[in-house]
Design goal:
The complex is a heterodimer of chains A (486) and B (449). With 486 residues, chain A is mainly α. Chain A contains 17 helices and two strands. Chain A has helices at 3-28, 40-75, 89-109, 117-122, 124-133, 144-181, 189-229, 232-237, 254-285, 288-303, 306-329, 338-362, 366-374, 379-408, 411-416, 434-442, 451-482, and strands at residues 241-242, 250-251. A two-stranded antiparallel sheet of chain A has the order 1-2. In chain A, a hairpin with a 7-residue loop joins strand 1 and strand 2. Chain A starts with a helix and ends with a helix. In chain B, helix 12 (224-255) packs parallel to helix 15. Chain B is extended, with a radius of gyration of 33 Å. With 449 residues, chain B is mostly helical. The chains are: A mainly alpha (486), B mainly alpha (449). Chains A and B meet through helix 2, helix 7, helix 9, helix 10 and helix 11 of A and helix 2, helix 12, helix 13, helix 14 and helix 15 of B.
Chain lengths: 486, 449
């Protein structure tokens, strides 16, 4: 039974539970539902939840854990002698997985019967040819223990799936039986079903915590793995980034951090003046009608996907800067540069500065403005001497949020900043950033054994910590400010 | 009492109240400058927006039109069906090479019949005007209807990418001289055929429906797989994040006691909304692909990653919508004997629904345009086959709209830049429709108490 049908049958059982419990509740009082504590519907709901939820939760957990358990058990079956020189247990396990996949395809295509599989696997050369037929190419030499492991893995997966189907259906049936057995006139079905639903609601809100835990755990785990293979001191203090896929790479974070900060700095140099002055104009000068049109138009900039900005940098801004500025001045010849990425990213973060600053300046009490204007100050003097100082913490918060956005931005720098890791002051040179290198180290190859791949997790952790710190700081500053006028 | 004499007489700055003095003028000038700089900032931001959209639109709109060549082809039975059996199994043995011969002969004959000079062009160069995709299309057409063999049919073929570029102004005679893929003679022939009406630009529906094509034939590349992949991912995101997002918001807004535990959840959600999207890609790679063993480039993984990313961005507006429902509604429901849960699900949530849906659609629109996390879970792979039907198709490899754009920008042929911009136009149209729907919902159903 496939997983889809299993889910459907659990739901069908639950629906059956609803109907039966409802009818049983009505029957238990001979049709006079006034004698029930809860409406018949509530009895039905309770039985529905008892039948559906435990089974589906078990199924989800089983699907998540089964591959891990099986791989751990199969991994022990591979002889050390069958791991070719220069290969790793991880690569052999990938072959084992691929063999299993190929066998599945052969069986699905009807080329080989279930019972003939063992015979086929005894002959390594024949197996390779048959797998190639099925469109599965194997990497290095396969030892006999790897083939045995593949067969065992397949058996375990099938056995596991059968066991899961049985367990889930049994649990659903048990829930159904238990739900029905509880139906009697005095049963407080409404309270019970509402407690169950509340449990589901709490569970949903815990997903946020689980996501954070997942992010932190996956980043930390692989980063520690990385630091076992590559010295942490070199990562944090080296100024050379030069990954070699044959080993012996230099993986210093400084060139990447420098590129990230340089691009973000240029972005902020564009976005802060433009965003702040727009916010001032919108909140202090613009008429309500103009504001109603201009504010959403500027916010449109934040709603445009970053890939659009990336393409804009690649086909318009980059060539423009190269042909009209960098080449005539003789300071660069590449269309992807820190300046290209910084300018385009600056346009992208304008609304992050302007929108938040605008809200914050609107929150400054009118009485402060009236006082200043009443003393004879002009509007601009009022803005500079009264409104801005009052709104300053909030504006700083907005700028910090924009900075965090710029540091974590990926597509614009992937398409606009270039790929060469350099420590240079010239903004018309191509440089690279942390996010660009995460993408380039993780796309394509995903065997997590070499420091060149694992370094992406250390970079990700660095990025996560940096943006988190900026966000928390911004949040603290904004909150502190808000309390002043409440 | 002589102090009074020591106090200087108050300085009068100007002779008249009506004529401003130097300092007032200076202050007023500063005021005007300040105001003008605000205006300049706004105009700068709006011009940037216009520039961005104009540059993408002007680069992308030509992708919807493509150069087609129409000419009669005689489907020679001697080449296409040597045994004369019309048996589909035999027909399938003839590869596109055979069809290319038939097509080349037909085109050469048509060029000659049109009376266009082909001086100095070899037959191969003449056939080079057609896309490498054309024989494959002819083959599909014949395999679908073997009765066509032996007849002469009018066939509409895609022109090659360079010829298409010439008609759109991307390729010129000068650039063709330096280009090994096209010669000025071929461009002249194209020009002559255009004058005869055999060759011309037309709307190309294949751009929206065909799958991706290899590096050598940008003219045949389409968005079919990417649109379908994005659609599948959006279905996953909608199916998971709507119930989970509403449930989490209802709990936090209506039931959660104010204590440290709920505080942690709230701070958590606020921070998750600001985590860079690429970090979600790393999470998806580590958890869904390496730990749970789900396939790479599958819409299900993309959908799960985007769900995790979208959830906090949905929870925040949903909570605001729930908060906007006035307490009197809850009091009334509780007063007539509803339980807390009934109050929320029978009254508060339906009243907050327009706000919830608006937030949901905007969250979906953000998820649709997201690229970076999808790069990490392998959606950049070259996928030519359409994913299967739901639900099994969720596990097939697929592309996604924004990733397809990135993919095309990494190719060598300049024709792909036009394709990428065209794909962006499609993406922007989807986003525009979704946002318009959100605005409509808000305007039409939002209630102010």
């Amino acid at each position: 039974m496939t997983n889809g049908y299993l889910i459907l049958s659990v739901l069908a059982l639950a629906a059956l539970a609803f109907a039966l419990a409802r009818r049983r509740a009505v029957a238990s009082v001979a049709g006079d539902t006034r004698k029930l504590h809860s409406l018949p519907r509530h009895h039905g709901q309770t039985a529905f939840l008892l039948a559906a939820v435990p089974g589906l939760v078990l199924m989800g957990a089983w699907l998540l854990l089964q591959p891990v358990v099986i791989d751990a058990r199969v991994g022990g079956m591979i002889d050390a002698a069958d791991i070719p020189a220069g290969s790793t247990p991880g690569l052999v396990m990938a072959d084992v997985r691929r063999i299993g996949e190929g066998l599945d395809r052969l069986v699905a295509a009807g080329a080989v019967g279930e019972e003939a599989l063992a015979a086929l696997c005894a002959d390594a050369g024949g197996l390779r040819a048959r797998l190639a037929e099925a469109g599965v190419a194997l990497g290095g030499d396969i030892g006999p223990s790897a083939v045995d492991a593949a067969l065992a893995r397949r058996d375990m997966a099938r056995g596991g799936h059968r066991a899961m189907t049985g367990a889930v259906l049994a649990l659903a049936l048990a829930g159904l039986g238990y739900g029905l057995s509880r139906v009697r006139p005095g049963f407080r079905a409404r309270n019970v079903s509402e407690t169950l639903v509340l449990g589901l609601l709490i569970g949903s809100s815990l997903i946020a915590i689980l996501t954070t835990a997942g992010i932190v755990a996956s980043l930390l785990f692989e980063t520690l793995h990385f630091f076992r293979l590559y010295p942490a001191a070199d990562f944090f203090f080296s100024t050379v980034w030069n990954p070699q896929f044959r080993g012996g790479s230099d993986l210093g974070i400084w060139p990447l951090l420098w590129g990230t900060l340089y691009v973000s700095l240029i972005a902020l140099l564009v976005a802060v003046p433009v965003g702040l002055m727009s916010a001032i104009y919108l909140s202090e000068y613009a008429s309500a009608r103009a504001r109603a049109w201009i504010k959403p138009a500027i916010e449109l900039l934040a709603g445009i996907p970053t890939i659009v900005y990336g393409l804009f940098a690649l086909i318009t801004v980059g060539p423009l800067l190269r042909d009209w500025l960098a080449r005539p001045l003789g300071i660069g010849s590449s269309s992807s540069s820190v300046m290209t990425a910084g300018l385009v990213m600056g346009i992208m973060v304008i609304p992050f500065v302007s929108s938040l600053s605008d809200d914050i300046m609107n929150a400054v009490p009118q009485a402060l403005r009236d006082g200043s204007l009443g003393l004879g100050a002009t509007r601009s003097e009022t803005v500079r001497k009264v409104v801005l100082p009052a709104a300053l913490p909030g504006i700083v918060g907005a700028v910090l949020l924009a900075a965090s956005r710029a540091i974590g931005e990926t597509m614009i720098v992937v398409m606009g900043a270039g790929a060469a890791a350099k420590l240079s002051l010239n903004p018309f040179e191509a440089m690279t950033t942390v996010t660009v290198k995460i993408v380039s180290q993780l796309t394509g190859d995903t065997e997590f054994a070499s420091p060149e791949t694992l370094v992406a997790f250390a970079l990700g952790l660095t990025l996560f910590v940096m943006t988190l710190a900026l966000n928390v700081l911004a949040l603290v500053i904004v909150r502190k400010y808000r309390e002043q006028y409440e | 009492m002589t102090d009074a004499a020591a106090v200087p007489a108050p300085r009068t700055r100007g002779a008249s109240l009506l004529a401003p003095d130097e300092r007032v003028k200076r202050r007023n000038a500063a005021e005007a400058r300040f105001r003008a700089s605000g205006l300049v900032a706004i105009v700068t931001a709006l011009l940037a927006l216009v520039w961005l959209l104009a540059s993408i639109l002007s680069a992308g709109l030509p992708a919807f039109r493509q150069t087609f060549v129409t000419f009669p082809v005689t489907l020679d039975a001697a080449v296409l069906d040597r045994k004369g059996s019309r048996d589909p199994a035999d027909l399938a043995k003839v590869t596109t090479v055979g069809y290319a011969k038939v097509l080349g002969a037909g085109f050469a004959a048509a060029v000659e019949a049109a009376g266009v000079g082909t001086d100095g062009l070899t037959p191969k160069e003449i056939a080079g005007l057609l896309s490498e995709q054309a024989p494959a299309r002819l083959r599909d057409m014949v395999l679908a209807d073997p009765g066509l063999i032996g007849q002469t049919v009018a066939f509409t073929a895609l022109a090659s990418g360079r010829i298409d570029g010439y008609l759109k102004g991307r390729v010129t005679m000068e650039s063709a001289r330096l280009d090994s893929n096209v010669s000025p003679g071929q461009l002249a022939l194209a020009e002559a055929l255009k004058a005869k009406g055999m060759l011309g630009l037309a709307f190309n529906p294949g751009f929206l429906t065909m799958p991706d094509a290899s590096d050598k034939r940008p003219e045949a590349a389409g968005l079919g797989v990417a649109v379908l992949g994005s659609l599948y991912m959006m279905i996953v995101v909608l199916a998971l994040s709507l119930p989970i997002g509403v449930a989490a918001s209802v709990y936090l807004e209506e039931f959660a006691p104010r204590n440290r535990f709920t505080d942690i959840i709230e701070v958590n959600i606020a921070n998750l909304a600001a985590v860079p999207s690429i970090v979600y890609g790393i999470l998806g790679l580590a958890v869904f692909i390496n730990f749970a063993g789900l396939p790479q480039s599958a819409p299900i993984v993309g959908g799960l990653v985007l769900t995790l990313m979208t959830l906090p961005r949905i929870i925040i507006p949903t909570r605001a919508a729930l908060k906007a429902v006035p307490p009197s509604i809850r009091d009334a429901a509780l007063g007539v004997g509803a339980s807390k849960l009934q109050t929320v699900f029978h009254h508060v949530v339906p009243l907050a629904l327009p706000g919830i849906l608006t937030g949901m659609i905007i969250g979906l629109a953000q998820a649709l345009g997201e690229t970076a996390p999808l790069l990490l879970i392998g959606m950049v792979a070259f996928v030519r086959d359409m994913p299967g039907g739901l639900p099994a198709g969720l596990f097939d490899p697929a592309a996604a709209l924004p990733v397809q754009v990135y993919n095309w920008t990494q190719r060598g042929d300049p024709g792909f830049v036009e394709r990428a911009s065209g794909a962006i136009v499609v993406l922007l149209v989807f986003l525009l429709v979704m946002n318009a729907l959100a605005i409509f919902l808000r305007r039409r159903f939002e209630r102010r108490w």
